What does this fold into?
Amino acid sequence: MAIMGAVMKTKSARREEIKRELKNFSGVSLESESPTGELILLIESENLGALHKTSQKLEKINGVLGIYPLTSRQRTKNKKNCRSTRLAVLNFLCLSNFNRTNFIFRLF
It folds into this structure.
């Protein structure tokens, strides 16, 4: 299992449609939205290669300007790697002053 936190930049005119389209992607969840409109995603796949392919597909959505990974990890027998990825995403949200109540519950 691999996990990645990412920031998605979008055209403001297409943001609502993009949010709806994200629901069609298995393993992709919209965790938060910044005050300036960036979408914060948590992406989970079977391995790092699959994460890369999912990111490429997300970039092709009409109105997406870019996907910017925060961090990614391949889960091993030791779950510490996966937890450190989640902590890195949480740290980003804290530094960015996101409304993160629901995100924190999902993260842990």
Notes: The chain has one domain: 2-107.
